[in-house]
Amino acid sequence: MSDYRVSHLAALEAEAIFIFREVAATCQRPVLLFSGGKDSIVMLHLAQKAFAPAPIPFPVMHVDTGQNFDEVIDFRDRRVAQTGVQLLVASVQDAIDRGLVTEPPNGTRNRIQTPVLLEAAEKYQFDALFGGARRDEEKARAKERIFSFRDDFGQWDPKQQRPELWSLYNGRVHPGEQIRVFPLSNWTELDVWRYIGDQGIELPPVYFAAEREVVDRGGMLFAVNRFIRPKDGEAVFTEKIRYRTVGDATLTAGVRSEATTVAQIIAEVAATRITERGATRGDDKTSEAAMEDRKREGYF
Amino acid sequence: MTQAATAAPEALPEASELLRFATAGSVDDGKSTLIGRLLFDTKTLFDDQWDAVEAVSAGRGDEYTDLALLTDGLRSEREQGITIDVAYRYFATPERKFIIADTPGHIQYTRNMVTGASTADLAMILVDARKGLVEQSRRHAFLCSLLRVPHMVLCVNKMDLVGYDEETFKRIEQEFTAFATKLEIPDLMIIPISALKGDNVVSRSENMPWYQGPSLLHHLEKVHIASDRNLVDVRFPVQQVIRPHSNDNHDYRGYAGQVASGVMKPGDDVMVLPSGFTTKIASIETADGQLAEAFPPLSVTVRLEDELDVSRGDMLCRPNNQPRVTQDVEAMVCWMDEQRPLRLRGKYAIKHTTADVRAIVKDIQYQLDINTLHRDESVEELKLNEIGRVTLRTTKPLLCDDYRRNRATGGFIIIDESDNRTVGAGIIV
Known about the structure:
A: alpha/beta; Rossmann fold; 6-stranded mixed sheet; 4-stranded antiparallel sheet; 9 helices; B: Elongation Factor Tu (Ef-tu), domain 3; 8-stranded antiparallel sheet
């Protein structure tokens, strides 16, 4: 006889599975954004659980900046092969070559992902796009719905959000419009790590601490690789670091860490005093409203 | 090579329970300060968030760091110094994980309050000890009772500004208790606090020895929520049919859904509505294996012993405990649309459990003044933030229960079919 208790992770999992199923049952052409980062890995895991023993009934898509950690791309391809899901790649490099977008002078391709994403959504006529964003990441996200309506231009209008009551999600759209769906909305960074530990989910090695050659830029540690080259006079030194987020390799920094297992990462995350994005993302430091502005343009 | 998740189980903390609570309040009642303190004292607030808030506050010349900056996420909110939407906040203690739905308190944001309260296990209402109960406090309490939030906490804040005076607290306590008696509030706790000074927020205050109750955080950690779920009436709205179409699972047919209420076990007799056919549960499955029983809020896949025609929008229940099956729906409706009012004879789409139907407004019986609870029977429409009792006729029967008995099968949303916006929320009475 059980006491019908449900742990918070089990409740979050049940909510996410419900959301995946609602979209699959009511939207015409869903797609799951999959980068090989930890949140999208958890999303793929949840999608598998939601439809088991049937396969995931929608493809996954990677908006590929061409500036990724090699280990992450290897992982992406291997995980996709295991799952048997269809992978679509929307290439930012290809979009630059075609003249859809222009390479920004600072070399980071985060912002120009948006037109590439929107073009791919239009091409494949996706009406529901799953993203792994969480509300604890950033304060504009804290106000976004789980089912977030985007107009013909992919834009988010914070003042025109659909009220979201109970678990009654409104995913209705006209052709050309989309719903961005965030099944991990109510998860925190710690929840994601605990779930990874609980479920034994495999991750790319960049998430675990290792000795890496780094440069220090404004207090952030960037590992030297084919995207991050030391500038003249810049000191290169060895530090034991891991990545808390894995975005564009040109602007994702690592954090000093001794954690080589999920359990050790959980212990570090529980004790940390800096937010995930604050510690590791050069792109969010631009302004108070950087994320809100990018979302209004159609960013995830 | 890729590292497998080598989770050392000994380092994983004990599983904790989830509690969702809604706060409502205006700029000056100390709500932001209270949330800021809960986040700060549970070490949820990060240094870079704090630094950013301090920098903005200092730049504006504020006398003290404005904790509202933490919760106001949108540019227009910061510019106007107001909260316009529901913001979700998270913090955890070893006992529980908390989700705060933080909503603005003014009457023009009634829809946000209703939204926040719809999923809340607990509602937190703040009053300023110097001012006592105001119209807004009564309105919040009424909305929370309408939405059947099972637990309520009234925080009598700014006790430091009334000299931690017991009489002041007692007066507010009595006044609110008298008011609450007229509402349906199953569980009420009233706590004297100072969010600014931290009295009775995380630990018991030495400044108020006359108060014998728990601190706010202690109450949030301990309040008994396990019994709030309806474990009696089996209701399983089918989300979709799982059919793998593979050689291994050629004959597999399972019904995916989240248990809305009740406890289901393999071997139980079940009825499929609206068809009325009965069969038994063959198994209850998840990706991790079969379950001996399923209960809310688990998402599972149910397999039945007989091949029946079951599809999305149908519901499994027990033959001797069925929901109402009706096309005539009586509901309290909160209107949420600024563009067009709810009109008599208006036609709308309804989403109820996993069912989509259409409905026509047959009658608007009255509009309820949510400050005075006065009923105005002369109205012919409901405007933004107005609440009224409405009769609907649906194109297909709803499989529903009274909201007061079952939040999952008693609530619905109203959608404008022309532009797909969610324009209202309904509570079946």
